[in-house]
Amino acid sequence: MAAKAANSRLKVWLDGKSIWYDEATVPILTHSLQYGSGIFEGIRAYQGKKGTAIFRLKDHVRRFIESTKIYSMNIGYDAHEIESAIIETVRVNRLKSCYIRPFAFYSDDHIGLDVSGKKVSVFVAAVPFSDYFGNGGRGLKAKVSSWRRINSDVLPVEAKASGNYLNSIISSIEAKASGFDEAILLSKNGYVSEGSAENIFMVKNGAIVTPHKASDILLGITRDTVIKLGEASGIVIEERDMHREELYAADEIFFSGTAAGIAPIVNVDGISIGSGRVGPITKMITEKYLNAVSGNNPDFEEWVTYV
Q1: Same domain as 195, residue 107
Q2: Would you please indicate which residues are annotated as catalytic (active-site) residues?
């Protein structure tokens, strides 16, 4: 009830208009609610040295637009208009830090899969947000899921589509029911793919290793951030196939994601990773990431859009 009351005091952007959260309603039979036919993004804004800083806004909006194209969804807005809607939504709510959710969906309330000629709505919300996992960065316990990651033979994994996340939800349910914090999914070929909503990295002998594009991963913007920060720090970055057993013998492991940030993993399938504590390279990447998202890294200041 407290969260709902807080959201009620926020304004959102829907189809070109800024309205109160409670006014943004759709029919219960909305196509995207029934069939998962929505496209969304997750974007973070942080309290920066010059005000509220939206991190990698253009990159997120570019992926949002590309996802709609993959699903042949004509949203009726270009990237600049979506960026402006996001900036305005953060500004009007006077948020210093927040999670931003652009969402494109079929707002037509009909039974049936055909979406040709159906109305598409675009929604932008910005809500206060803190620790995704709620453990203060102490380190996660992860379980390799019995569910495999979807692949491009099944659904377009590079699109951030609502329906794709059923795969994530069921793996997360399994992990939590088994006493773990998060799931790790394998690709159809049995290689490490990603977490339920995060990309994954391991540290071995001073190098950072992460699954490559062919491992059915979402090409995360935070993933790209980690790679660029690591390279700028002189760390060797390897994008390649990762065997499950490599995780158990890793020196360090961490997740990356817009919501998760940099989230250390200290245990996989009951096996302690490295020392069983957050490792030095994970700590260094976390520090550099937090500086970048708040505009405190001059080498990557172009990643930040101030409101």
Answers
A1: no
A2: 160
d(CA 214, CA 241): 8
Residues 202 and 131: their CA atoms lie apart, in Å, by 22
Look at residues 99, 127, 155 and tell me which one is the last residue of a structural domain.
127
Same domain, 160 and 118: no
Kindly give, in sequence order, each residue whose CB lies less than 8 Å from that of residue 234, ignoring residues fewer than 6 positions away. Answer: none
Which residues, 6+ apart, have CB-to-CB distance to 219 below 8 Å?
A: 63, 158, 213
**Cα separation, 283 vs 280, whole angstroms:** 5
Rg over CA atoms, the chain? 19
| Domain presence at residue 298 | no
CATH number at residue 162: 3.20.10.10
Contact by Cβ (8 Å): 89, 82: no
Residue 203 is encoded by which pair of tokens?
């540290």
Q: How many other CB atoms are found less than 10 A from the CB of residue 140?
A: 22
pTM: 0.94
Give the residue from 4, 23, 18 showing the smallest Cα distance to 92.
18
Give the count of alpha carbons within 13 A of 63, CB side only.
Answer: 20
pLDDT at 4: 55
| C-alpha torsion angle, residues 86, 92, 98, 100 (rounded to 10) | -30
222 has a pLDDT exceeding 60: yes
Other beta carbons within 10 angstroms of residue 240's beta carbon come to 11
Residue 113 in any domain: the answer is yes
Indicate whether 1 pLDDT > 50.
no
Cβ–Cβ < 8 Å for 64, 82: yes
| 179 and 104 both lie in a single domain | no
Query: Which residues fall within 8 angstroms of residue 185, CB to CB, at 6 or more apart?
Result: 144, 145, 147, 148, 149, 167, 171, 193, 194, 195, 196
Q: Could you tell me the CA-to-CA distances from 181 to 106, 111, 160, 186 in Å, in that order?
A: 33, 37, 23, 17
